[in-house]
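Recap from last week: sequence in, structure out.
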Amino acid sequence: MIKIGMCDDNLNSIKIASKLLESETIEQNLDAEISIISSNQKEIYDAIYEGKIDILFLDIDFKNKKTNDIKDKIISSVNDKAFDLIKEYQISSDEYLELLEQNKDYKRLEERKQRMADDRYNMIWDSCSPKEIADILRGHYDYSDQEIIDEFEDEETKEDIKKYLEELKEIEEASKNVVLDNGYTFVFENEYCFSKLKSLYEDNQRLSRTPDGREFATITNSDVTKEAFLVNYGEDIEIVYNFYNKSSKEMESYENELFVMSNINSKEELIEKMKEKLEHFEEKYNKLEQDEKNMEVQWIGELYEFWLH
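Predicted structure tokens:
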């Protein structure tokens, strides 16, 4: 593995550059890691002396004799490493000069990439809203939530972005199926999550503007023959019960009722309530099926008696 060190007077700049470099090594599938990021020349020199880094990105303005001595030691150490490599791989002087020329081209291309990356980064901040910036950093540059929050300066924006990221995480979690202990499966529909559904329920105007038939959440039994789902109709949220019709081989609506969310305060409570209602619906439906079978048997018996007479 190639171990990389990065040193700059401006520690913030080098942190940004390190993320770009790290992304590039991943993209190029290089076996490399950034092992040291520092603005301390002595720390970098010690790392080179102890063999802790193979490549050094250095951008420091040496202003006094002490730091110039460190600069000379670093250059001397780098030259020694270059000599060792030439000796180890038996590179001729011409080949070494050719490698240096290739390295110049590489640096030129890297500088161009860096400028383009800087321009892209500045363009994002100049033209995007805080939430759009958060989406870009999260989706394309693998920033953690805390790193995204730290990119913003004022506390109000930090708090807004924190809440926005929490909402995104909740929506991502909401899209996953929840398998219950009795074999039922629960899932939110149409990118809804509990907080989004709850806020919609508490806002009559928003609820009335939601298209009729919009589904919010579904719970179904293990063989997917019975299901209950929350859906918007008019200014209300209803729970609709479906069953699998063996004759038509389709799911058909059996009944529906208004669904009151005012006393439900979490996703877990919502799941439990919908599960309870679907279980109750199953009991009613099974009883209905049995009653129909009983009536059918009774009708056949009565018809048989009629024919006998």
